[in-house]
Amino acid sequence: MTTLTNVSAVRSFDSSAMPTVTMIGGGQLARMTHQAAIALGQRLRVLAERPDDPAAQVTPDVVYGSHGDLTALRKAAVGSHALTFDHEGVPTELLEALIAEGVNVQPPPSALIFAQDKLAMRHKLGELGIPIPAFAEVNSVTDAVAFGDAHGWPFVLKAVRGGYDGRGVWMPADAAETERIVTDQLAHDVSLLAEAKVDLKRELSAMVARSPFGQAAAWPVVETVQRNGQCAVVIAPAPDLPQDRATEASALALRLASELGVTGVMAVELFETHSGELLVNELAMRPHNSGHWGMDGACTGQFEQHLRAVLDYPLGSTRPLAPVTVMANILGAAEAPEMSMDERLHHLAARLPEAKVHLYGKGERVDRKIGHINILGDDLAETREKAERAAHWMSHAIWTDGWDPHHD
Ligand SMILES: Nc1ncnc2c1ncn2[C@@H]1O[C@H](COP(=O)(O)OP(=O)(O)OP(=O)(O)O)[C@@H](O)[C@H]1O
Ligand SMILES: [Mg+2]
């Protein structure tokens, strides 16, 4: 029999005694970080722009405002144990102001700058002797055309800041196309850099986490498959990657995290050349698409690890849970299918019960990342086929193997 004395001896869960983490940005990365925060008994507060932002839909603790507004940032930071990011857009001077007021910003702006500014990153990596493609700053059409003439056509033009999912990347084939792009971008105050186009064999990502204490952990290096300049599929671990090259990639990412003072998770996007060389493409200091596989496929996924890292907890094991995990992005179709998302999910559940589905609560627009599928397996080809078939079904309501849910 429960007595009153026993009841009063039970300590109620005091959520205010658990940490609150503030994440700047209300996108899918914040939404998935919120899932991890729930499991850890923590509170994730987000600074979002609108109530229908993916993270704002699911968290009760939302501050509305812009990441470029110091007042909104201050409001989001009040009482929080660490402030971190779901995107790289917050101006570093605003972060410096927050730090001066006592806010625990992780990663610090001194590191974040190398994920925000592709030119600063290239200069820094050059200084550190880390292999990167040849590059140059572009301030005029003449600069850009000279780069193409020197390094070969087509070459790559990139916005120094703010690009994502291939937006802000161009590959002009000749001087006329270069002139069009450069004139237009410079007129819109977009700073540009030129980079040699790498004859790449494939793209890899080396993902690591590091805490302020200095503990670090690496997940297996993965292969990222891009379509139309954006990530479509991730294979973990990267198939047929020789052990010494995998070790080299992980060591490079760990070294960069330490040299740059990164805290939280960091993805190092890499190009593998036909001769086996690894070149760094870019850095992301936040959860990254190339780490989504680990939500289901690793002992500790990137979202949990990011929280542990920014709060300076010991890090979790990055051990994979299956021989292979394939992640396929659900990308918005050119025209949203007539079948509702819910009905598509219902059919998917019936046909591929092992598919792990992650939907972001986003409207369907062409090529927009609206969710992803993870499949764990033993056989690469079979696992990849299933993941891609599932993701294609969720995007288009069409089974790529011709199966008809209503007639077969
Ligand atoms: N120098 C290069 N040589 C060959 N291909 C390149 C080069 N730079 C970029 N690309 C291709 O364009 C894609 C997008 O480039 P990048 O990663 O720089 O842009 P982003 O839009 O910032 O990326 P993300 O999609 O990661 O947000 C790369 O994944 C790669 O496929
Ligand atoms: Mg990229």
Please describe what this structure looks like.
The structure is a single chain. With 408 residues, the protein is α+β, with helices and mostly antiparallel strands. It is 33% helix and 24% strand. It is built from 13 helices and 17 strands. The strands form three sheets. Strands 9, 10, 11, 12, 13, 14, 15, 16 and 17 form a nine-stranded antiparallel beta sheet that branches. Strands 3-2-1-4 form a four-stranded parallel beta sheet, with helices on both faces. It has a four-stranded antiparallel beta sheet with strand order 5-8-6-7, sandwiched between helices. A hairpin with a 2-residue loop joins β11 and β12 (230-236). α2 (28-39) crosses α11. The chain starts with a helix and ends in a 12-residue tail after the last helix. The mean pLDDT is 96. Magnesium ion (MG) is lined by residues 269, 281-282.
Describe this protein with a few key phrases.
408 residues; alpha+beta; 9-stranded antiparallel beta sheet; 4-stranded parallel beta sheet; 13 helices; 33% helix; 24% strand; globular; binds adenosine-5'-triphosphate; binds magnesium ion
Count of helical stretches: 13
Low-pLDDT segments, ≥5 res: none
Strand content: 15-25%
Termini separation comes to 58 Å
**What bound compounds does this protein have?**
adenosine-5'-triphosphate, magnesium ion
Average pLDDT reading: 96
Give the tally of β-strands. 17
Order of helices and strands: HEHEEHEHHHEHEEHEEEEEHEEHHEHEEH
Sheet having the most strands:
9 strands, antiparallel
What class, by secondary structure content? alpha+beta
Nearest-angstrom radius of gyration?
22 Å
How much helical structure, as a percent, in the residues?
25-40%
Shape: globular
